[in-house]
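User: Run a structure prediction on this.
Assistant: Running it now.
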Amino acid sequence: MINKTVANAEEAVKDIPSGAVLMLGGFGLSGIPENSIDALLQRDIKGLTCISNNAGVDDFGIGLMLKKRMVKKMISSYVGENAEFERQLLSGELEVELIPQGTLAERVRAGGAGIPAFFTPAGVGTEVAEGKELREFDGKLYLMERWLKADFAIVKAWKGDTAGNLIFKGTARNFNPMMAAAGRITIAEVEELVPAGDLDPNQIHTPGIYVQRIFQGIDYEKRIEQRTVTGERS
């Protein structure tokens, strides 16, 4: 059985160069590859294009990469929690492509499936449609969107095995599995790493064929993006 394990996050990301296109999994701050992001922050690289559902927050996740000026362009859907992102966008320091969330998910999925383009009604008649092909189907206009692929996809799973098979938990499944399929090289960090064959095949979300490197993560903070409390009942 092929063993795809590497020692740690530093080993996993050591060959990511400046100018690379990265996909970073997660939904908000749920299921983000915390260890890999920390390891990237130790590297002297810049000019990255980052594809992620969100841009982290100012002091956590991709927000730290933005703060260090590692990111040239963000391709995202939801970016409302990051003041540094806003500052760089308004000052012209950061290129930004904002995409409807469903379209972003489908563009990534298409990249993993080898589908170069598809048509969607989302964005027709808005700035999203500028410069893109429109086509009518059954009396309704649809917008052509192209696939998204990456040099490196960096994902975080709840459990994985040494062959690269992955199981995600909860909302971490929203973007991680499809990004794992769309990277030329996919790096997976997991909360629990087990020997190949120990996972129930019926529970695997991402087959190991999509994963090139896997390691056991440590010290996960699992930050809550918006903490709320319920008032006392009278």
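The chain has six helices and eleven strands.
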